[in-house]
Specification:
The protein is an alpha/beta fold. 30% of the residues lie in helices and 21% in strands.
Length: 679
């Protein structure tokens, strides 16, 4: 194109008569460019370029995608402005509630808004915009009056339902009783909300739970009246369903973690199930948690919130104790009729007389007896193991107590390879050729192979008449047929069975409880309760055997089915140690020299502590390349701050990240606020 032709094109732009300035956020993912920039709006784009619309702009000499944040009458800059290159689509993909939510979360997590928008809004697919989203929700199917009687089993359950249906704000921590179909209970409540013109949003950890919720919803509403949002969907399907929700056609939304951002109109009920599950945490910066997204939405949009599960996290307990949320717990009389008979191996003198090794054996006789009784009456038996595959460790050759490292308490094993070697810790790598059993004093060691496949082989030999199925790793079963059989599964992969399991055996408790993780005990109890909830009531013969020390607090809370009591005790321990959620904690990872320079330029809130630096946890690496000789190895600094201000720490670290990027530091930097794993 000639210079004259270019001049004609440029002169053809006509400034919009109304609010000619568009403030846009470039989708660059850079901290120092995470702010609004002013552009002119051409008259031909005046109607389409509304706040929340995707546009294309020229930035630093190249075309980039951006999001219109607002329209203004005047610019805040005196320099000449460029025009928007074009409006990518007139769809307002980020309505005002979404933009407010993103701003709040960016402060909370010290994040970059463009990263949050990418997590919240699916990529555009032009053909998806041709999908019919104008048909009203009522015309997509027939809905009868839902039966809400399932909620009467819980104390204050009726008043909670009345508040949600009436459009009032109610927030509850829901402890699901064993045998209670939580997908069905959520389905009827969501259907009632939608029938009255409101929106309902249900967020669950994985596809298995999405399928369970969708199946339950289809029993009370039409198939087209349920909108699912998951990562497994293709670009067109995901974007078309997002538009359906955006336009008000999708009133009932079920999905995984990113569905927490779904722009449901007139949102009256938001629910997140099993909030302790790590799948609800986005693995990409700024590492937001679906529970935190929904609690923020509840505060900003004034919608009811339900945090449900068999167990309860310390974070949810903090919300309950603060008065921001109340409990939905079944009375003890209801629990006694629904819960299976739960006991620990070796929890009585009589049992120890029958089997002196009950506390130390991997599969004590009481577990075999419970499984045998269930199989004899034609019911399946569930064996829960912490790991998949074959994992070789060492145990005492005399009493079978797991062999632990005397320095870090990690599991001892034999190094791979053909050479004879001394027992070596799998955590710290120290050799222990003179290991002595702390329980019996024996120096003998025996190899113990753990894992789902190995356990299935052992059970197949012990119960030769019965079929053995495994559910773990990439081979997860969603359901099994009723009948006498053995099912070996890892936590979270337990398949459902109509009528429930006759018995469940929880194996290798030490492998779960002794993980070097702040949430090890909390996660273990949640895994146990999830398995126990699939077992028939005690009145029908249902039995759960946990192979663990009976005196452990987690075991006692499991036996009593007391998730609130455990969460309260766990939160108190966190308060004493000043661990999350009793304190706000962030981790900052960078090369050693980079950490010093970062914190030298950060103004942290009052009473903030710096802990470290320490090496990164095993298996964790800092992305990117840097000069290790000049800057040092990657290290981690913990930042601990009081809870007085929800976002003060995030704002301070975000300002530090902006200064870091502005200075064009060569070293990589990673910030995580309130991470699930702090090392």
């Amino acid at each position: 194109m000639s210079a004259g032709g270019l001049e004609c094109v440029l002169m053809s732009n006509t400034r919009a008569a109304d609010r000619p300035i568009a403030r846009v956020l470039p989708m660059l993912g850079l901290a120092h460019l995470d702010r609004a920039f002013d552009y002119l709006v051409d008259e031909r784009d005046a109607e389409a370029a509304q706040p929340g619309v995707r546009v294309r702009v020229r930035f630093a000499g190249r075309l980039v995608d951006a999001l219109v944040l607002e329209r203004a009458a005047q610019s805040r800059h005196e320099a000449s402005l460029r025009y928007l290159e074009r409006v990518i689509s007139p769809e307002v993909v980020a309505p005002e509630p979404t933009r407010m939510l993103i701003d709040a979360l960016a402060d909370r997590y010290a994040g970059i808004r463009s990263d949050l928008y990418r997590a919240a809004i699916p990529a555009r697919h032009a053909k998806a915009e041709e999908t019919d989203t104008s048909t009203p929700w009522e015309a997509l199917g027939e809905v009868g009056e839902p039966d809400l009687s399932a909620w009467t089993a819980y104390t204050h359950g009726e008043s909670f339902v009345d508040a949600v249906v009436g459009g009032k704000v109610a927030r509850a921590a829901w402890q699901v009783t064993p045998g209670d179909g939580w997908p069905e209970a959520l389905a009827v409540l969501a259907a009632k909300v939608a029938l009255d013109g409101g929106g309902a949003l249900i967020v669950v950890p994985d596809q298995k739970d999405v399928d369970a919720c969708e199946a339950a919803l289809r029993e009370v509403v039409g198939p087209r009246q349920v909108t699912t949002l998951t990562a497994a969907q293709g670009p067109q399907a995901r974007y078309s369903r997002y538009l359906s929700v955006l336009h008000g056609q999708g009133r009932i939304v079920v999905g995984t973690r990113s569905a927490a951002f779904a722009p449901v109109r007139n949102l009256r009920l938001a629910a997140v199930m099993f909030d302790g599950d790590g799948s609800l945490v986005d693995p990409r910066a700024p590492y937001s948690h679906a529970r935190e997204v929904l609690t923020t939405r509840s505060a900003l949009e004034g919608c009811s919130l339900l945090v449900g599960g068999y167990a309860r996290t310390a974070e949810t307990q903090l919300l309950v104790e603060s008065g921001w949320m109340h409990e939905l717990v079944a009375p003890r009389a209801v629990l006694r009729t629904r819960a299976p008979y739960i006991h620990a191996a070796g929890d009585s003198d009589v049992e120890l007389e029958r089997d002196p090794r009950a506390k130390r054996a991997r599969m004590p006789s009481v577990a075999f007896q419970a499984a045998s009784r269930a199989l004899e009456r034609g019911a399946p038996v569930l064996f829960q193991v912490p790991r998949t595959g074959y994992v070789q460790t060492l145990a005492c050759g005399q009493c079978r107590t797991p062999a632990r490292c005397r320095w870090c308490n990690g599991p001892l094993g034999l190094p791979s390879g053909g050479e004879a070697a001394a027992p070596t810790c799998r955590w710290c790598g120290r050799m222990d050729p003179a290991h002595v059993c702390p329980a019996c004093g024996s120096r003998k060691l025996r190899a113990v192979v753990l894992g789902a496949e190995r356990t299935a082989e052992e059970l197949g030999r012990a119960f030769a008449k019965y079929k053995v199925k495994t559910s773990s790793g990439e081979r997860i079963l969603t359901r099994v047929e009723p009948g006498a059989q053995l099912v070996v599964a890892t936590p979270g992969a337990e398949p459902r069975v109509d009528g429930g399991y006759g018995a469940a055996v929880l194996l290798d408790a030490w492998a779960l409880l002794q993980r070097p993780d702040l949430r090890a005990v909390e996660d273990t109890l949640a895994a146990w309760m999830g398995a126990a909830a699939l077992v028939q009531p005690g009145g029908d013969g249902g039995e759960v055997v946990v192979v663990a020390e009976p005196s452990l607090p987690a075991v006692q809370h499991l036996i009593r089915w007391d998730a609130p009591g455990f969460a309260a005790a766990e939160l108190q321990l966190r308060r004493e140690a000043r661990f999350p959620p009793a304190a706000r904690v962030a981790v900052v990872d960078a090369p050693r020299d980079g950490l010093e320079r970062f914190f030298a330029g950060v103004e942290l809130p009052e009473h903030t502590e710096l802990l470290g630096p320490v090496d990164l946890p095993a298996g964790t690496r800092l992305p990117g390349e840097w000069n290790r000789e000049a800057l040092g190895p990657a290290q981690r600094m913990l930042v601990r701050s009081p809870l007085q201000s929800r976002s003060a720490l995030g704002k301070a670290l975000r300002a530090g990240a902006v200064a870091w990027a502005t200075a064009k530091q060569e070293a990589p930097l990673r910030i995580q606020v309130d991470p699930v794993d702090i090392g």
